Fold:
Amino acid sequence: MLSLSLGLPEFKVIKHDQFADYHLISVEKNSWEERCIHCGFLSSIVHDRRTRKVRDLPILNKDVYLLIHVKRYKCPNCLDVFSERYESVLPRKHQTNRLREYLYQLCLGTTIECVSSKMNIPYTTLKRIFYSIAEKVFNAK
Structure:
């Protein structure tokens, strides 16, 4: 088994499974409490847990998938339920921020179609990623 550090300090590795063509790494966030997105109150009351599959940068030319054990908290102040937030993964996205940036950089040197084929990512998904990052880069200037 390969011993690895993900380079994502907000996560701790729980389990690592290596298969013929990909790595499956189970992770969870290091913190035990989260700030409510509705009222800002700090909560440590875990309502339930979900699993979220996110693709990360390849390791040794093998795809890497993170199985993030997401805690959903119940706010003791407003009683709303909310999920953990991550610095390295945007809400409702299936790729880490660094993979999205890496794909954007690859597309700058060639076509989206070529990168899509090489990285085994649907063309429309890669096109959305490319243009969302390109817009951020353009607006930052």
Observations:
- Helices lie at 97-108, 112-119, 123-140.
- Residues 104 and 130 are 5 Å apart (CA to CA).
